[in-house]
Amino acid sequence: MEEYTKIDQNTISSLVTTGAGYDIMRYQTLPDFLGQDAPYLLYLMGKNMARKTLINNYDELYEFFQYMGWGDLSLVKEKKKEMIFRLTGHIIEKRLSQDLFHIDYRIECGFLAETIQTLTGETYECLEEKYTKEKYIELTAMIT
């Protein structure tokens, strides 16, 4: 098995990217390349990214989402077997208001599920729901 150093917050904050280039790659090129398996593979990419990222608590998780340009993540409801998060912010509003690309949040869901699993010790899966009119994404992480 290949050894690697986990990516920490300092490394992530030092990276520079433009949102447009990232969006074109993510929402057009990757789905074309991955074909019909794209949603499943993007989810697994998010889980894999989480395994290689050092996140010790929920504040670091929220900060990671911001650094990645994924939006502002916040926990809005916690039940016995699920956690409901809201993804908001300027980037979410822009993505929800465009018609050029089909926007999904499979990478974010995979990353969130794996990170919560690491933080809690429970196995989680995550689903997304778009609230276009209200301009936010709801990510529901459920114990499986």
TrEMBL record:
Gene3D superfamilies: Trafficking protein particle complex subunit 3. SUPFAM superfamilies: Ligand-binding domain in the NO signalling and Golgi transport (SSF111126). It comes from Halobacillus halophilus (strain ATCC 35676 / DSM 2266 / JCM 20832 / KCTC 3685 / LMG 17431 / NBRC 102448 / NCIMB 2269) (Sporosarcina halophila). Pfam families: DUF2507 (PF10702). This is DUF2507 domain-containing protein. InterPro entries: DUF2507 (IPR019642), NO_sig/Golgi_transp_ligand-bd (IPR024096).
